[in-house]
Amino acid sequence: MRSSLKKHIFIAILLLASSLTQAQNKPKIGLVLAGGGAKGLAHIGVIKVLEEAGFDVDIVAGTSMGSIIGGMYAMGYNSESMYQQIANIDWSVLMSQAPDAQTQPLLSWEANQRYQLKLPIVNGKPGLPSGFNNGQKIYLMLTYLSEKYHEETDFNKLPREFFCIACDYYTGEEILLDSGYLPDALRASMSIPSFFTPVKLNGHLLIDGGWINNFPVERMKERDVDFVIGVDFPKQAYDIDADITLLDVMMESNSYVNVRYNDVNRALCDVLIIPELGNISSTDYEFADTIVKLGEAAARKQFDRLKFLADSLGIVQRNFPSPLPAATKNLAELKIDGLSNADKKTVAHSINTDYSGEIETDYYLSKVNNLYGTGDFEQVAYQMGYDSTRLGYVFTAKLKAKKNPSSLNASINYNTDFGAQLLLNYTYRNLFFPGYRLMIDGIASESPSVKIRYHSSLGPELLHAFQATYFSYNQPKYIDGKEQSKYNIQNVDIATGMLSNLNVNSFTGISLHYNYTFLSGDIFSISNDFDTVETHYNFLNLEGFYQYSSIRNTYFPKSGFSFKANGTLSSRLAADEFTNPYVFASAEFTQSIPVINKLNFVYTLQSGTTLNRSLAGPYQYFIGGYGNYYPLNIKSFFGYHRMELIADGLHATDFEIHYNVFGKHYLKAITNFGYAMTRKEGSTLTFDSDFIAGYGGGYAYDSPIGPLQFFMARNAANPTWNLYLYLGFWF
Question: What is the DSSP letter of 84?
């Protein structure tokens, strides 16, 4: 009661003072925004009401999410633009450190999308990152939103003065940040321990300021303000039976430290707004719109008071030009900071540092994102500065190479084709040359395989590449859809050539292969020998290839298309056949088309054939299965067992309907049909064709460990329906 009376007396004194002084001596007003993760989005709703009430403030302070909203408000963003840039986005993507799939070079994405577990190699041993998230996406967002003030190192010179709070990881000391590079300060203030990696800044290793002072009203009062508006949050409503996540625990536990301190800070507020958020937690970003409205509702309860104060204090609301970066700007220079000269040369070519002139904002943002997408950098950001002598902007890419360039990756799956499988991958980035990477895959299963690859992930130049593979398949032999016997295929392929990453969506190249195949068992239909035999094949192959894909979800594509083609000239390394080369050619086109909400249509056209009079076994077409890809000329065809059919060519069409029932649950209907081609004896270009078709469908779940797919399928030649399971990422 006394506290309330004191506040009313203080406000009355301010009102009296305001009527006796000039406008230039108006009271200094501060706004303090507490941290709270997703709950901090309520600040946007509060600011909306302040704007409607004619209120304005001179200085803004915040912690964690409060620092982000506060920093934006200090730069001149209004509530509407903050809503569009902060609340109206997909925070589940923003909170992930994984590069956006569309920014990863196609070859890198094809490898990375297989892994369920990724661990850096530290001092020769698998280790753990210092935080689950390096904050790349949030940092880049903050860099973009503050671009207009990249050169302003004194936060008191922003349109509204600003400071934020962080905590020294080693000493627990409260660190007040009111100068420096603004994105660094904002990122440091929200570095949730064990979720975000700490930030090195000004000789400190900084974590989230919420661990020491989540609601810094006392620090605001030290700035000689006359009037403080504070926005804080209550503890989350208790629900003893609610499920909580690790992030929930980390976000909520810091509030225990601040409970008593917050009581002191709340008492220092002249206007205190506490949005009632019920059981909404600090991680409930999916309720962003609701949280903003709840913040608005809480402030609107005090609207009359705020309006009275704004009028009585003679507050003149300011409108600032939009701080958002211009859609285009004149670029004088692109620079690279943070790498060795050798690395700079490689990166410079990939982002075209020779570029100058009028440039779209989306252009340099895409270059930054694409560099991070290579996986070679811990952090990729940029800084924009104006060069008045050249009447243009200098764009500086700020790159931080990964401290531990090697990693151990793993994944498991089960599928009808190969049974249970374990994938172990070792990757070493920037080995010997900038942008090059070594990848070693080992797959343990009843059909084991090993693959070693070494190639560049940057730039469109034709650069050297090397690949070696080995696999061993224990393969049933089918007659009329029934397993009759088994044979074994062992294959070794060693290739060297030139590879070009044309852009993030495509690559092309040429390679020379030595291929050795060993077939054993009942393989009469391959070798044209009706006895049980063991056959060795040696080939020398010259291959050209091209692949493009804008699809970055193989299992549930929403849109985009892909195209791949290759041609191979091959010759047996045998004295009597070396002069009789084989020619293989194939092409495949896939497109995903959104039909209506939640319904997608996906189709694939594929064609492949061999041109020679007599065909050696391992380069015939083996047809059947539903895997994403297979080695040699093994082609998936729904409704048939893996490699159930053997032919000299395949021309086929696949149609799929994907219906998103809810969340990540899907129903799929699949049909494919076409012709399996068998060459007429003694002919190169004439074939007999057999019509083949398969169809079926089932349920699929897009789980964090990969798709879980359950299908029933059959083919036109066999009335039996079979169950097909594909659980986990395909590799």
Answer: I
**Residue 427 has which token pair?**
């990757």
pLDDT of residue 334: 82
Separation CA 461–CA 180 (nearest Å): 39
Q: Reply yes or no on whether the pLDDT at 534 is more than 90.
A: no
Q: Model-level pTM?
A: 0.80
> Phi/psi of residue 351, each to 5°?
-105, 5
Residue 659 and residue 155: Cα distance in Å, rounded? 51
Tokens 């409503």 sit at which residue?
237
Full 3-state SS string of 317-371: CCCCCCCCCCCEEEEEEEEEECCCHHHHHHHHHHHCCCCCEEEEHHHHHHHHHHH
Place of tokens 């230039």: 24
DSSP string, 685-709: S-EEEEEEEEEEEEEEEEETTEEEE
Q: Helix, strand or coil for residue 130?
A: coil
Whole-Å CA distances, 28 to 23, 142, 305: 11, 28, 18
Please, are residues 504 and 525 in contact by the beta-carbon 8 Å criterion?
no
Answer yes or no: are the C-beta atoms of 282 and 251 closer than 8 Å: yes
Please tell me the least confidently modeled range out of 325-339, 502-516, 651-665.
325-339
Contacts 24+ apart (CB under 8 A), 568-577: 568/541, 568/542, 568/543, 568/544, 569/541, 569/542, 569/543, 570/515, 570/539, 570/540, 570/541, 570/542, 570/619, 571/539, 571/540, 571/541, 572/537, 572/538, 572/539, 572/616, 573/538, 573/539, 573/540, 574/538
Q: Which of 581, 553, 552, 580 is nearest to 568 (CA)?
A: 581
How far is it, in rounded angstroms, from Cα 552 to Cα 236?
Answer: 38
The encoded tokens of residue 186 equal: 């904002």
What size, in residues, is the chain? 731
Backbone angles phi, psi at 557, to 5 degrees: -65, 135
Spatial CA neighbour of 683 closest among 651, 649, 632, 646: 649
DSSP 8-state class, residue 179: B
Is the torsion defined by CA of 528, 532, 538, 539 positive or negative? positive
